[in-house]
């Protein structure tokens, strides 16, 4: 990793994707099990620029070793925060904010990432301050301006569409400008479950570390906007770059710092699958042992404990990340469900049930893990079938796309072709069956633990989705509940058919998202490709 702290007017722009936990909710909390997590083309962006900041009265409150940092999230009302990071003591303090409140996720990233810059860049931030020179006016100071911006899918667009007089359809969503204002506050906005805090934390860590050269931007990869679309590939290995040593170290450092800051901000060590997805894109995830963060989170060890905990060479990071890709020609579609119910405390209740009925829980979780493993195997088998005979694969997908999954096991028949097409139909039929099995076990888990993982309202919707021609998988993502569903379908016509079902669904309001699967994890961009972000920096 190259490291130098230089004052530069150039903008560092990083982004990280949202996630869908297709299989493995609750299981991923335990290292014994894994989860299948798919990255999305909805991303959260952070732009960082060294600027001469006009701080008015606050400039008086700054000491010589303070680096002022101004953060804004202009899609939200009352969403700016001003801080000072004391490079002599590695401490961050908030100077002011729009509503007098705090943003713990932003704050913990700034504290950790700037302390790391101070520790890892030669001369640290003091060298950077010295290079920045004397302020031109009493109210001005050299500092950092940071702008956060999320793709629209992270937040429900119902209210925005309502204001525009549009129905909640994909066509309407395409008319909302990119990274549009939400018209509300961060506290009140309706999230869609793509993991905004993990994507924000990860992109902010990457942007700060890259801005100061603590991670090498060229090793991380600079991707232009047009290369960020949906794809079916796996981020790990598919682009051939993820495993180069320099890049691996950069990515590991960003991952470790983001996991640390996310855990501190949320006040607990979770499974970390959402941060892992923001870093790596789609993959099979096995969690890290929380012990790696214990010393740093307990405090007292200062920056040395942070440097040690987050080091890419720290062997305590035992999370496992294996390649995963949605099979060729299959597409992920998501919907935000507005059932008017919320389900707080589901994780707590599931964990309590595991403690109360350990044997029964172990059996059920093992069955669910096996069902999830079957989905993973079938995704891999479909990729192999495509690789071995793409023509037969396409023929099978086209045939199945016109029929409901219950009819797929018969295959296209002798006239339609090769044995390999029949094999692909069989794999697709097995995938639909494995989805039903996974859902059945999720419902059982919900019943046993007394939480609505797939409540009856969602069961009716998902059953109807599974009956649409070309729908291969339909289930609740992550922790489940009333808020969202995902479908994996055989191409755009099936996606349109599912969307028609959603718009006609009367029991609950089901609103599509535009997000699709996308393999890319955290990366950098040139600001020139994102004029909306450039404008918000000035
Ligand atoms: N675009 C953003 N700008 C600023 N802060 C954000 C943004 N998105 C997320 N956050 C931070 O993350 C918090 C939401 O975290 P959380 O409730 O865990 O939601 P999620 O499940 O989407 O991660 C917000 O209150 C805020 O602190
Ligand atoms: C239950 C879980 O295993 C999965 C939750 O997945 P979601 O995708 O539902 O997550 P949110 O971002 O909180 O909406 C808890 C965990 O692993 O953190």
Please outline the helices and strands.
Blueprint: E1 11-23, E2 35-54, E3 66-72, E4 80-86, E5 91-97, H1 104-120, H2 124-132, E6 140-150, H3 158-164, H4 170-173, H5 196-211, H6 217-220, H7 245-266, H8 273-280, E7 283-286, H9 291-298, H10 302-310, E8 320-322, E9 330-338, H11 346-356, H12 358-388, H13 390-401, H14 413-416, H15 419-449, H16 456-466, E10 471-475, E11 484-490, H17 492-504, E12 509-512, E13 523-525, H18 531-537
Parallel strand pairs: 3-6
Antiparallel strand pairs: 1-2, 1-13, 2-6, 2-7, 3-4, 4-5, 7-8, 9-11, 9-12, 10-11
Helix pairs in contact: 1-5, 1-7, 1-10, 5-7, 5-8, 7-8, 9-10, 11-12, 11-15, 12-13, 12-15, 13-15
The chain binds adenosine-5'-diphosphate (ADP) and ligand DP6.
The site of adenosine-5'-diphosphate (ADP) has 13 residues, from helix 1, strand 6 and helix 5.
Spell out the key features of this protein:
538 residues, alpha+beta, Ribosomal Protein S5, domain 2, Alpha-Beta Plaits, 2 domains, nine-stranded mixed beta sheet, four-stranded antiparallel beta sheet, 18 helices, 13 strands, globular, disordered N terminus, binds adenosine-5'-diphosphate, binds ligand DP6, Phosphomevalonate kinase, kinase
Folded structure, characterized:
The protein has 18 helices and 13 strands. It is an alpha+beta fold and 538 residues long. It has 2 domains: 11-324 and 529-537, Ribosomal Protein S5, domain 2 (2-Layer Sandwich); 330-512, Alpha-Beta Plaits (2-Layer Sandwich), CATH 3.30.70.890. Helix content is 42%, strand content 19%. The strands form 2 sheets. Strands 1, 2, 3, 4, 5, 6, 7, 8 and 13 form a 9-stranded mixed β-sheet that branches. The protein has a 4-stranded antiparallel β-sheet with strand order 10-11-9-12. It starts with 10 loop residues before the first strand and ends with a helix. The structure holds adenosine-5'-diphosphate (ADP) and the ligand C[C@@](O)(CCOP(=O)(O)OP(=O)(O)O)CC(=O)O. Adenosine-5'-diphosphate is lined by residues 73, 103, 105-106, 148, 150, 186, 191, 195-198, 200.
